[in-house]
Each structure stands twice: as structure tokens, then as C-alpha cells.
């Protein structure tokens, strides 16, 4: 989503961008105090109160899963759509090159079709490689415009969506040591970082099924850097102290 920096900001952590007033950026995830942003294909965080989305877009519903998207689009006209953060087969891994999914109602086939919105190394977004766009907003504008290459053709509709998503509670912890991840579903951090430890740990099962178990019963915790919920993963429990 297109955004603009409203104040100067000097990065504090290595995973952050510095900002200059008026700087244009793409926001990939705005679910925390720090937003995950893209600049020319590189992804880092920016403080949410230092940027302003150029406009609120009713079609972006954030972190919802495929079944919920299909339920929202159950009784809507042909071409009605929504954009959501891309759901991974492994819920603990976020593919940086594909942050979004597009869900579109196809009345003729009586289904909801799902498209992965790809992101190039340069930070451009596309459904099909012959049409790349500098931002998610521009991609959606192209496919809502009436022309013969607009496939799928998107029809803006007020979905009347109200989130029912409930996150599991977290416990604040402070890291004792630096931890460097060795697998893609782990979380790296430096010593003395604030980490939100999830009280329920996701345990992938066969297929797309996931069960959750209490963090008291595991040798590894699961959590995210405080204020940066997209930066999440597993880490050894003896590397942190619960506050």
C-alpha cells in the first residue's frame, strides 16, 4: 500500500529504514507498531507513526486466511474482491517475495479464485509478468479499469467486513543472548531485545492443519519482536527471560 513519510526518522535497529519527510514507500504489513515496508525491493521496518497511508483502501483486509476470505465473498457480485496478507503453507514462514494474495468471486464457476500477488526483486507487483506495477494500489487500479487486458476484472464492492480475528495472548520477555536462526522458521535477535512470547505454539500437522500447544510444554518458544509482529519465529526458551 502506498504511503508517505510524515517526519524524519533515523534507524535504531539494523532491520529498520531511515526516513525523510515526503519519502514514498510501499507498506507490506501494518499490523504492528512498526510497519513492514519495501523500498526498491528491500524490506525493513518503519515506525507506523512516522508514515501515513495515502488513502485507506476498503479492499485490503490484512491477516485473514483463505477460508475466511471465501466466507466474506460468499454472497457478493461477480468480480468482487479482497486483498489479504499471503497465507503460507507453513504458517511460521513468511515469503518476502510474495506478501499478498488476491481473492476474487467468480459467479459463473460458483467459486472464489485465489491469486498470488508476486513481488519482483525491484519491488514491483504483478499477477502476470508482462504487467508489473510500482505499488499494490496501482495493480488494483489496473484490474478495476475497464479494458480487455483486465483479467481478472475486479469490481469494487463494500464488503461490510468486521474482523473477528482474536490473537493468542503473549508474554513479554527480554533476550539474554544473541540468537542467530539456522532455519527459515526461526527468529533471530540480539541480546536485550524485547520479545513477545506467544502463549500458544503453532505445531504444523499433515496438509495445512495446525494445532496449538501451551508454551509451558515446549523447549522452544514462538514469538515476535515487540512492535514487529511480521518478524516472528521459534527460538530456544533458555535464551530469554519472561518479565
Describe the protein:
The structure is a single chain. The chain has 3 domains: 52 residues, SH3 Domains (SH3 type barrels, Roll); 85 residues, SHC Adaptor Protein; 73 residues, SH3 type barrels. 7% of the residues lie in helices and 37% in strands. It is globular. This is SH3 domain-containing protein.
Q: Gap between N and C termini, in Å?
A: 35 Å
Question: What is the chain-wise order of helices and strands?
Answer: EEEEEEHEEEEHEEEEEEE
Average pLDDT: 82
> What is the share of helical residues?
under 10%
Number of alpha- plus pi-helical segments: 2
With strands numbered from the N-terminus, the spatial order across the biggest sheet is: 4-3-2-1-5
- The CATH superfamily title of the largest domain: SH2 domain
Radius of gyration of CA atoms, rounded to a whole number? 19 Å
CATH architecture of the largest domain: 2-Layer Sandwich
Shape verdict? globular
The largest pleated sheet is described as:
5 strands, antiparallel
- CATH topology description of the largest domain: SHC Adaptor Protein
- CATH top level of the largest domain? Alpha Beta
Low-confidence stretches: 89-97
In short:
With 243 residues, the protein is mainly beta.
Topology (SSEs and partners):
Blueprint: E1 2-5, E2 24-29, E3 34-39, E4 42-47, E5 51-53, E6 60-62, H1 66-72, E7 81-85, E8 100-106, E9 111-119, E10 125-126, H2 136-144, E11 170-175, E12 194-198, E13 200-204, E14 210-214, E15 220-225, E16 228-236, E17 240-242
Amino acid at each position: 500500500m502506498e504511503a508517505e513519510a510524515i517526519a524524519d526518522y533515523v534507524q535504531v535497529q539494523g532491520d529498520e529504514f531511515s526516513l525523510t519527510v515526503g519519502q514514498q514507500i510501499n507498506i507490506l504489513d501494518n499490523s504492528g507498531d512498526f510497519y513492514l515496508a519495501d523500498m526498491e525491493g528491500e524490506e525493513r521496518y518503519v515506525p507506523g507513526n512516522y508514515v501515513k497511508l495515502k488513502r485507506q483502501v476498503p479492499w485490503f483486509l490484512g491477516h485473514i486466511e483463505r477460508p475466511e476470505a471465501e466466507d466474506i465473498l460468499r454472497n457478493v457480485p461477480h468480480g468482487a474482491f479482497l486483498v489479504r496478507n499471503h497465507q503460507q503453507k507453513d504458517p511460521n514462514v513468511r515469503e518476502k517475495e510474495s506478501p499478498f494474495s488476491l481473492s476474487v468471486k467468480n459467479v459463473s464457476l460458483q467459486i472464489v479464485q485465489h491469486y498470488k500477488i508476486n513481488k519482483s526483486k525491484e519491488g514491483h507487483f504483478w499477477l502476470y509478468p508482462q504487467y508489473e506495477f510500482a505499488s499494490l494500489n496501482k495493480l488494483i487500479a489496473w484490474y478495476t479499469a475497464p479494458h480487455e487486458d483486465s483479467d481478472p476484472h475486479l469490481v469494487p464492492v463494500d464488503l461490510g467486513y468486521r474482523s473477528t480475528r482474536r490473537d493468542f495472548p503473549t508474554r513479554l520477555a527480554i533476550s539474554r543472548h544473541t540468537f542467530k536462526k539456522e532455519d527459515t522458521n526461526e527468529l533471530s535477535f540480539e541480546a536485550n531485545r524485547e520479545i513477545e512470547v506467544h502463549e500458544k505454539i503453532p505445531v504444523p500437522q499433515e496438509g495445512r492443519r495446525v494445532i496449538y500447544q501451551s508454551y509451558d510444554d515446549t523447549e522452544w518458544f514462538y514469538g515476535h519482536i515487540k512492535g514487529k509482529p511480521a518478524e516472528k519465529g521459534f527460538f530456544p526458551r533458555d535464551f530469554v527471560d519472561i518479565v
